[in-house]
Amino acid sequence: MSRPDAPTRHARLTGRLSFAIWSIPALLSTLETVVFARQAGHPIPVWRAFVSEAPQWYAWAAFTPAILRLAERFPLGRREKRGNFLVHAGASLAASLIAAAADAFVGALVRPSSRSLAASASSWFIGQLPATTLAYFAVVIIGHALASQARLREREQQALELETQLRDAQLATLRMQFQPHFLFNALNAVMGLVRDQRGDDAIRALALLGDVFRVAMSADGRHETTLAEELDFLTRYLEIERMRFGDRLAVAIHIPPELSRARVPRFILQPFVENALKHGILRERAGNSVTIAASRVDATLRLSVRDDGRGLTAPAIAGLGIANARSRLERMYGSSASVLVANAESGPGVAVDIVIPWMPPAAAPG
Q1: Where in the chain is the domain with CATH 3.30.565.10?
Q2: What spatial distance separates the first Cα and last Cα of the chain, rounded to whole Å?
Q3: What are 71-80's pLDDT values in tens digits?
């Protein structure tokens, strides 16, 4: 369903609002008339002063919605045609004439005089023309400013919605990338365990596989989780891989307990661990290790994944998983987050350092 644009909604809302706004000068003019009349020794009732002063102001209250619609239809600006200005000039004169007629008519009722209605209206029109012209174009300018602000809010809301949709799409893409080949590898591992007549291990692997996919499929749209939940998912994933490769894969996790409730993006570590297994460790016949660690440094949370495999290769650097992770972090945290993938400073292998803003830990469940 299409939404009306912001300026149109704004114009529809100005009827009662303009009446309330123009009541302020109407009441002030009434008060001024009462005070001056008393000072001159000719006091008048408040109601009579109000009836005398209010019509011209409430005429502008009635004009305001129409003026705003004209301002939308014939905007004033450097790029607009001169004809738009002529439209507003004519509308300003028409509004002044109507206000003058209304004032003359009400004046004839509450302040009878020998002057004709035409003479009274003409006198008011000429005397008040500068003020009424200023009032008209003030309404145009204020309406333009409010409409621009409304359009800006509308664009910001649309941008926020698009960004949310993009994050959801990225998370879905990450899941789709993660599941097929991992499922293929995991099933191969189960088949190998069955061939080796390791039935208990095969059942355990299938249970772990079910847990991994349950977590992956039940992310319920949340983009963040706790570090403890992320590590629980990653531990199950790695346990399946260890069933495939046995002693060739050693895993070490160094996470201080006080960081277990820290908030981190979902599935942020898995692509880098997978990359270490695929491009580094699993190509070596000798045993290798993966180390996962976390630390808090001032207002940042730092996550690291290190392996002692073969080191960086071009496909590893340009992998889809790493590109998705970088893109997600940029969308979620902007320039406050970073990912550095480089060869380890000492010894073989790759070091991945992820920096995200530190946020208050998530509340413990239940």
Answers
A1: 247-366
A2: 39
A3: 877 877 656 5
What separation in angstroms does the CA of 289 have from each of 21, 246, 251, 271, 327? 72, 12, 6, 16, 27
The whole-model pTM stands at 0.52
**What's the CATH class of domain 247-366?**
alpha beta
Cα 316 to its chain centre, rounded Å, is 33
Residue 204, Cβ density class (10 Å: 0-12 exposed, 13-18 middle, ≥19 buried): middle
Residue type, 343: N
Residues 6 or more apart whose Cβ sits within 8 Å of residue 250? 287, 288, 289, 290
Full DSSP string of 69-132 = HHHHHS--STTS-HHHHHHHHHHHHHHHHHHHHHHHHHHHHHS--SS-HHHHHHHHHHHHHHHH
Cite the DSSP H helix spans in 111-248: 117-195, 199-217, 227-245
Nearest alpha carbon to residue 229 among 218, 240, 245 = 218
Q: Looking at per-residue confidence, does 315 or 297 come out higher?
A: 297
